């Protein structure tokens, strides 16, 4: 288990060092050799963790999917509205820890081919659909809207939040606040459907 933890830590280290280099020199000007050298590893070691430089950018999405499952379990005893809000807030708060670097990652990921990222987006949406289906089965929500449609809208506002936040020049704009305002609009529509 210790070996697996070290591998995870090294992958994270490579990711963050790469993002720092991308920020300093520009994505196109950073080579795998430069990343490996900055991390104190061999070029071959880099390729053990990332098949290509572009995969460094995709790491954020795939690592968030692992974290998503932990967060889903963490809030399993909450009512569906609060549970979904807490899940999204926790996922978004990750971006505040290294905001400059992660804004750059988001920008580069959007600029890169998002087709590779679609798998992560689908996993995210399927997880949200499952939570909504469970809430319907438990009768904690009663809506005519399809669970998949609700999940798509929630995931859509999540990514809209990330994009809005990453391009904002206003440092006072708080990522979670952006999401909460949009979330309330969506939830009000779901609740109105109950009447």
Automatic annotation (TrEMBL):
Top-level lineage group: Bacteria
Domain HTH tetR-type: 8-68
Keyword Iron: no
Keywords: DNA-binding, Repressor
InterPro entries: DNA-bd_HTH_TetR-type_CS, Homeodomain-like_sf, HTH-type_Tx_Regulator, HTH_TetR, Tet_transcr_reg_TetR-rel_C_sf
DNA-binding region: 31-50
Protein's name in the database: TetR/AcrR family transcriptional regulator
Species per Swiss-Prot/TrEMBL record: Bacillus salitolerans
């Amino acid at each position: 288990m210790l070996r697996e933890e070290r591998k995870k830590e090294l992958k994270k280290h490579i990711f963050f060092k790469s993002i720092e280099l991308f920020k300093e020199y520009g994505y196109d000007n950073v080579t795998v050799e430069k990343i490996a050298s900055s991390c104190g590893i061999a070029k071959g070691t880099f390729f053990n963790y990332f098949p290509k430089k572009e995969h460094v950018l995709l790491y954020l999405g795939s690592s968030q999917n692992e974290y998503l499952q932990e967060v889903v379990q963490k809030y399993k005893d909450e009512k569906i509205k609060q549970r979904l809000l807490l899940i999204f807030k926790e996922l978004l708060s990750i971006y505040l820890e290294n905001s400059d670097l992660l804004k750059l990652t988001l920008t580069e990921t959007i600029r890169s081919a998002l087709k590779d990222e679609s798998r992560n987006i689908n996993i995210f949406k399927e997880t949200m659909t499952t939570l909504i289906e469970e809430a319907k089965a438990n009768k904690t929500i009663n809506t005519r809207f399809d669970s998949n449609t609700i999940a798509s809208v929630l995931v859509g506002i999540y990514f809209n939040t990330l994009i809005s936040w990453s391009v904002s020049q206003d440092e006072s704009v708080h990522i979670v606040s952006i999401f909460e305002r949009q979330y309330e609009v969506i939830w009000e529509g779901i609740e109105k459907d109950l009447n």
